[in-house]
Amino acid sequence: MQAELLIQLLLSGLGMGFIFALIAIGLTLIYGVMNVVNFAHGEFLMLSMYASYWAYALLGADPLVSLPFVAGAMFLFGVGVYYALIRRTMKSSMHAQIFVTFGLMVFLQAAAQFFWGADYHAIQDSRLSGVLLVGGIALPVPQIASGVGALLATAGLYLLVFRTAVGRSLRAAAQDREAAQTVGIDVDRMNALAWGIGAACVGTAGSLLSTFYYVFPRVGSVFVLVAYVTVAMGGFGSIGGALVSGLLIGVLQVFSGFFLSSSLKFVPVFLLYLAIVLVRSRGLLGSQ
Amino acid sequence: MSALAPDGRVAPTRRGPWLRRTAWGLFSAALLLLPLAVGSRPFELRLLTLMLLFGAMGQGWNILGGYAGQTAIGHGLFFGLGAYASLLVMREFGVSPWVAAPAAALVCMLAGTLIGWPCFKLRGHYFVIATLVIAESASLLFTSWDWAGGAMGLELPIRPESLLNLQFHRSKLPYYYVALALVAGATALTALLERSKVGFVLRAIRDDEEAVRSLGFSPLRYKLIAMAASTAIVGLCGAFHLQYVLFIDPPSVLGLGLSVMIALIPILGGVGTLAGPIVGAVILVSMSEYARIIFSGGGRGVDLMIYGGLIMGIALYRPAGIMSLLRTERVVALRMRLGLGR
Asked: Cα A122–A126–A131 angle (5° rounding)?
């Protein structure tokens, strides 16, 4: 029985971990290409959760059906944010970049409350619901399926970044902007692409999350701090690092929530992060 | 030697000292007399008091974030810690706020040193995220720490109003002057620091830490000095806030939004400048308070939409802060023509 409980906790931790990782990968991809931390990342998540919710509530579309459309819409939104706001602060200090995205965060949160109210919404009967029993181990279907979905999305992203020509240009722009420019890579377009892909990642995560998590204007702040921790712990700009630390964090928070207290479940996560960063200031897999 | 302004241009060390001094003098006189014009209108008085309080906090942040260039987005922790420590010291030892507030500032300096010691080796965004996470962890801990009130928060027992008790109930005017003393003290400390050796080393650390190290200075030591000064000021502000509102709970004094606002004030005004935090506080506090009373009807967040939009606007059009307006070519040319120096 004890072993089954541990396996159950481990699996749901990994499921959450893949979602944390996918959110963090979006953030770290943008950072890697542009050296900008998107403080509105949690609000991107919130917007995509609302998009899935409204697709379900108004059109009756299951989140799994609307997922590609939500991800596509978020891609366009990310590109739009880059051209409207981020591109103009490229030459400014880190301060201006932090605050333009912080202003966007406040704005989007308030806009969500203005248009959709402060109520909590939930998707009731998604195709992903119920509990799966496998040999005495009870697995909550939405969490596990979302974890698998996030895993697939991460694999797809990995192929895109590391196995295609576009991905190679993206990585070149991340490594050395000027050198990339000299060999004819349109760095400006790569920046926009990074924002688009980053937003699509978090959009996919939001779509999956909406199958089992409440949707409300401040939902982003629940997840975004974990996303920063995941990115810093894995190393800013490192996709592999975000994946590894996302999984670590997912498992750790499930165990500490179960054995310690559910309101303090992120404290051991933060302590682990601080310990890692203080020993290795570049994070697990970060480059200089 | 001339320091680099945040926008990268060389900032003159002496620009029309008499003009500058006169401006500061007039401004101080105006602050002393302003309540006469406002009278006892509660909204305006509260607005002005908040401007002073946030101005003082901005000065505190500016020492670390502006002069030393360490972008800490977690100073809400020291605001909350100042308020909590002050209240708990009063509750446990039955002392006056005039003893409890300095004790709270000491607690904040100690906490700041303990946090800064390991974190100051982190660079750039790693430092930003570390300070943010530590502040958020503290908020979680205070929320579940029953001895410190937990999620319910703590009330300051009401005492007869007097300067000794630092509580004023009929008119809130005395709070204005206490806040004025806070911002004046923080500004004077920063002005002293700006001219001292410590101030030079701090600015040098911001511009090139390796060079400072190679000259035989310990960057860590000077960053810790900046941290101590910065957290003491913010902690005192927290203790003042407690006396002013008489109630504290984790969301109101330890939130992430507060941490960001403390940093945003000097950044909007102009980081690493003496007047920047004051300019920033006047703009930011009036923006958020007026947006609140004009647009908050129905509680649908229109005020926050406007607030967020304005922050984005300033970041886009004045990325180096409002004080950088004084550095624009046209203004510099005008000052040269008037014989005021650059």
From this structure: 100
Identify all chain A residues contacting B271, using CB atoms and an 8 Å cutoff.
95
Q: What are the respective helix, strand and coil percentages of chain B, to the nearest 5?
A: 75, 0, 25
Q: What angle do CA A121, A123, A129 make, to 5 degrees?
A: 145
CA nearest B249: which of B156, B153, B155? B153
Domain ranges within chain B, ordered by starting residue: 38-269
Characterise A176 by phi-psi region: left (phi > 0), alpha (psi -120 to 50), beta (else): beta
Q: What is the pLDDT of residues B137-185, one digit of tens each?
A: 898 889 888 888 888 889 888 888 888 888 888 888 889 999 999 999 9
Rounded Cα gap, residues A39 and A36, in angstroms: 9
Residues of A in contact with B128 (CB under 8 A): 37, 98
Q: Is A187 on the interface with B (CB under 8 A)?
A: no
User: Which pair of structure tokens corresponds to residue B94?
Assistant: 């039955």
| Every domain of chain A and the residues it spans | 2-219
- Report yes or no: B331 and B339 within 8 Å, Cβ to Cβ: no
Kindly report the nearest CA distance between residue A270 and chain B, in angstroms: 7
In angstroms, the CA A27 to CA A40 distance is 10
Mutation test of the interface with chain B: which of A37, A95, A256, choosing the one with the most B Cβ atoms within 10 A? A95
Strand partners, A134: A137
A263 with B260: Cβ contact below 8 A: no
Cβ within 8 Å of residue A284, ≥6 positions away: A233, A234, A235, A238, A241, A244, A245, A276
CB B59 within 8 A of CB B233: yes
Chain B residues close to A95, C-beta within 8 Å: 71, 267, 271, 319
Contact (Cβ atoms closer than 8 angstroms) between residue B74 and residue B135: yes
Average pLDDT of span A231-245: 91
The complex's ipTM works out to: 0.86
Q: How many CA atoms lie within 13 A of A64 on its CB side?
A: 10
Query: Where does the pLDDT of residue B262 fall: very low under 50, low under 70, confident under 90, or very high at 90 and above?
Result: very high
Residues in contact with B261: Cβ distance below 8 Å, sequence separation at least 6, in sequence order:
B54, B284
Contact B62, B267 (CB under 8 A): no
Residue range A158-203, pLDDT digits in tens: 888 889 888 888 888 888 888 888 888 888 899 999 999 999 999 9
DSSP calls for chain A: -HHHHHHHHHHHHHHHHHHHHHHHHHHHHHHHHHS---TTHHHHHHHHHHHHHHHHHHH---HHHHHHHHHHHHHHHHHHHHHHTGGGGTTS-HHHHHHHHHHHHHHHHHHHHHHH-S--B---S-SS-SEEEETTEEEEHHHHHHHHHHHHHHHHHHHHHHHSHHHHHHHHHHH-HHHHHHTT--HHHHHHHHHHHHHHHHHHHHHHHTTTS-B-TTHHHHHHHHHHHHHHHH-TT-HHHHHHHHHHHHHHHHHHHHHT-GGGTHHHHHHHHHHHHHHSTTTTT---
CA separation for the pair B168, A197 (Å, rounded): 56
The C-alpha angle A224, A226, A229, rounded to 5 degrees, equals 115
Of B19, B327, B23, B61, residue with least CA distance to B190: B61
Say how many C-beta atoms besides its own lie within 10 A of residue A183's C-beta.
9
Q: What are phi and psi of A139, to 5 degrees?
A: -115, 125
Name the pTM for this structure: 0.87
